Every structure is written in structure tokens, then in C-alpha cells.
Amino acid sequence: MTSHEKINELRSQLELFLERLDHLDPEKTSVEDVDQLIQMIEKIEKELG
User: Fold this and answer.
1) I need a surface site. Which of 4, 9, 24, 43 has the fewest CB within 10 A?
2) Mind spelling out the 3-state secondary structure of 3-49?
């Protein structure tokens, strides 16, 4: 994967993460929801490394 493709993929993943974060209702968010978000960030971090 080229650097440009990697950047586009990371951008796409970050947009998905932010979209999910924006749609969370703090009153209804479960531990599982937060765990999924953390897993998304860990995946992004792993791809950057």
C-alpha cells in the first residue's frame, strides 16, 4: 500500500470513528459501545505503526 493509499484509509477510518462518536447518546452509551470505539482507535494506531 502506498503512503497516499494508507493516508486515505486512515482518513476514512477516522471519519467513521468520528461519525460513530457524534451519534452516541451519553445517556444510552454502554461499556460495550465505548469498548468498540477504543478498539477502533487501537486498530488505527496499529496501522500507523
Assistant:
1) 4
2) HHHHHHHHHHHHHHHHHHHHCCCCCCCCHHHHHHHHHHHHHHHHHHC
